[in-house]
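Thread title: Can someone regenerate the structure for this chain?

I was given the following input by a collaborator and told the matching structure tokens would be attached. They weren't. Posting the sequence so someone can regenerate them.
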Amino acid sequence: MSKLKKKLLDNNLTYGSWLTLGSTAVTELMSACREFDWLTVDMEHSSIELKEAQELIRVIELSGIVPLVRVGENNFNIIKRVMDAGAHGVIVPMVNSKEDAEAAVAAVKYPPRGKRGVGLGRAQGYGFSFENYKKWVDQESIVIAQVEHIKAIENLEAILNTPGVDGSIIGPYDLSGSVGALGEFNNPAVEEALKTYEHICAALQKPMGAHVVQPDAGLVKSYLNKGYTFIAIGLDTLFLGSKIKEVFEEVKDN
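Best answer:
Regenerated them for you:
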């Protein structure tokens, strides 16, 4: 069993981050940080296309880090194509029900566990290692459900108990929007939804996930203190922009 798969199963802490620029050089730099267990190529809120994603997956994988892809939607064709490109797993947006979760797993896994068709792309060694890949994808591939709607909170126990779902990650902005309070994280309805998420995950002993968008150590620690174990820190653009801002603030202070 891979290190990340085992850590998710045991609810142990892992760190990751988000890639949105589509740059192999930036991806290589972030992969060189050995603190990351996984890096996610974002194909939902970026201009990254499949060809670019495959190159980023290659860089991450060759660096010894687990490459995940956040797909743009819970779409069978999109998921199987990023898996064929070599992704070790997917983060799937708007998983709001058990049926949504089952569909995501079915797109990743081959029969009899899933419905994914067979292609001979990069993941399968271009046709030279399909048998090994068939075993690998059944046992090692990762499916993370993105919990970003109040319906997902209402159906959370069924989602997390779906065979093949390895964990979840909160989408706080869309979750807040689904209760009519977009970006209002102190809104009582939003706070209650997050408390419910945390309570159910803890009761089921499932990993809680969060994307700490601003690369701020204090914010990360606040999630750690709440028991979150699947944590994305920042993204490529914010790491770059934050450092520029930090340097110029220090220069101007002098």
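The CA atoms of residues 185 and 225 lie 18 Å apart.
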